[in-house]
Amino acid sequence: MTASPVGSRYLTRKHSLNFSDATLRNVMADLEEKGYINQPYASAGRVPTDKGYRYYVDDIAKMGNLHKSEKNKIDHNIDLEKTTKHTDTMLKEATQILSQISQQISLILTPSLSKGIFNRIDLLSISSERLMIVITIDNGFVKTVMIELQSEVTQKDILQLTELLNEKLAGISLAEIRETISIRVPPNDTDNKLIRIFIESSKEIFNDISEGRLIVFGKDNILTNPEFERVDKVKGIIELFENKDVIVHLIESTTQNPISTNEDPIIKIRIGKENQESKLQDCSLITAKYFAGKSEGIIKDIGTITNIITHTHGLTLYISFTSDNFLNLTTDESICINGVCLTITHFYNLKQFTVDVVQETLSKTTIPLWTISKRVNLERALKPTDRLGGGWIQGHIDCTALVTHVIPLTYASEIWIKIRNEDLGLIVEKGSITIEGVNLTIAEIKDNLIKLAIIPFTWEHTTLSDLKPNHCVNVEFDILGKYFLRQWNIHKSAH
């Protein structure tokens, strides 16, 4: 490949086209008039314009599968035993392999830690004056911070603070912890002097780290591309990639700002002058979202809403997922999303599907409140041969309810929900209720409030940890209770 302009004679001879040079020149003249190709200088052939490349990408090119040799290269180079334990190692290896396969510059942007949900914290005494803090986030990332101590602390103080922090902060984003740590862990609650030191250092401990978020490989690959034979072009690209803040901004703006309503919600392609950065306008930038995390249990996966398209009859949701449990989804299959039974209208092999939601469903569920990037619980329909776990869930929402309290605890977090008076006959202590598609046991009933005790596994592997007071949730009552109540009302009216 030379990236040189080509003329009509070259094309007819090279590709054995069944028409004359003159016919091809007329076609190329039409394409030039419409802006799909241009002539760099008077005696040159034609090259595609940004518009021409865009037409090719949107209307001609088809997405293919990786070649077997490329799949083997990925399997051979990524040490799954190691990468499942160290997310940063996995990302570095993935970036390097992507560069080797594509023969281009590849980069990966690690997730913003401030948006991550706190999983646990460990405090390790390095010396009498230094403490290592290890924060584990729910998407598998780990943040390590060293703080200096003005005075010696005991191991008892360290263990006491570790237990207190894990109890008070579970299920909360790092950004929220940073702003509310002094309220959640009041320094006067205990005589542990380490708590005050911790709170004073909280801005540093829970601050997001932009440095190191960008992993880049293959910058020397641009030297093999004929488009960059000119030294000034190469220099501009190298300088651009040295300024990682600019690259991070470019990637984030590309993924968040679609250039058309038809653009793929996962894979984004910016060609030439579609890139805001002038030094990148001789290149194409291809980005794709990835999702960290894995789920299992009764809720089979946590999905993410990547796009919402409204129309006159309702709306269409684009849902992405990470679990291989859903790779064999098919069109017309039923799927439960936050407890709402919907039908898959299109399935993409990039771990994404769409569902249509009609006005009737919108009027009875929390779907109108959903936004792009919201996490949702996913569950496939039960097959007759499947083992039954949990309770019967039809996916037919009975009502929505308001969350009044969320209390993250170490052993069993609590959620309090307000139930409508007319539905009180459908609930009993130790009975079942389905909230956001998660089948739960009612631990306690106080007037029209119910308490749900959530074990750590369910808290971690569903979106229940995302709930906050005043959030609205989908509710489905036990089907047997609904049948019994209906028959009882019929019996009463007959007598």
From TrEMBL:
GO BP annotations, alphabetical order: negative regulation of DNA-templated transcription
Name of the protein this chain belongs to: Lumazine-binding domain-containing protein
Highest taxon of the lineage: Eukaryota
CDD domains: Riboflavin_synthase_like
InterPro entries: ATP_synth_asu-like_sf, GAF-like_dom_sf, HrcA, HrcA_C, Lumazine-bd, Lumazine-bd_dom, Riboflavin_synthase-like_b-brl, WH-like_DNA-bd_sf
Keyword Cell membrane: no
Pfam families from the UniProt entry: HrcA (PF01628), Lum_binding (PF00677)
Classification via SUPFAM superfamilies: GAF domain-like, Riboflavin synthase domain-like, Winged helix' DNA-binding domain
PROSITE patterns reported in the protein's UniProt record: LUMAZINE_BIND
One GO MF term attached to the UniProt entry: DNA binding
Keywords: Repeat, Repressor, Stress response, Transcription, Transcription regulation
Ranges for domain Lumazine-binding: 294-391, 392-488
Protein's organism: Potamilus streckersoni
